[in-house]
Write a structure and sequence with these properties.
about 180 residues; alpha/beta; five-stranded parallel β-sheet; two-stranded parallel sheet; 7 strands
Length: about 180
């Protein structure tokens, strides 16, 4: 049986990567996690997986445990309200970190995700080009880069078209959105 701890002492690498997701019960995040796990497996690494449930205290505890376990790096989908200081703890310990889907503005880490501002702007422009004028933005009250960027893209398109924005802010859940849209 291969002794991973002995190998780590020799080579200073654990071949493990900490993966922190905000909601493993979501099918979207489950698919993301499966993709990350498959990519790590192809690279000869294994994931230590944790779910924060959008809890900043839990995120901090998980990050501390990952540092204690000497993972080679962290893939982090930051919990709502995460700050630069959260990520500074990793960078100051020379632990590589990649933020995924969400990013903390000003954090000195890599980021992999989509351009939510551009995507939402293009979607809104598409509706405007088809003659729609009463276009509402539903959701987006979370304190995350995704929520901020999507709202900004919508507002950009509405302002450019000279149309009044209609913001219907609510938690980003199917239940909350359904209650507003009725």
């Amino acid at each position: 049986v291969y002794d991973r701890s002995a190998a780590r002492m020799r080579g200073r690498h654990s071949q493990t990567v900490g993966v922190i997701i905000v909601d493993l019960t979501s099918s979207f995040y489950a698919e993301l996690t499966a993709g990350i796990d498959a990519a790590l497996d192809r690279a000869g690494r294994i994931a230590f997986l944790a779910n924060t449930g959008e809890d900043l205290d839990r995120q901090a505890r998980v990050l501390a445990r990952f540092r204690e376990q000497a993972v080679d790096g962290v893939i982090l989908c930051p919990a709502e309200g995460a700050t630069v200081e959260t990520l500074h703890q990793l960078t100051s310990a020379n632990m590589p970190c990649v933020q995924v889907l969400r990013h903390v503005p000003g954090a000195q880490t890599d980021y992999v995700g989509t351009d939510n501002r551009l995507g939402t702007r293009l979607a809104t422009e598409h509706l405007i080009e088809r003659g729609h004028e009463r276009i509402a933005f539903v959701g987006g009250d979370a304190d995350t880069s995704v929520a901020h960027d999507r709202k900004a893209g919508y507002l950009d398109a509405m302002e450019q078209a000279g149309l009044p924005p209609r913001l219907l802010l609510c938690p980003n859940t199917k239940v909350a959105s359904a209650g507003i849209v009725q």
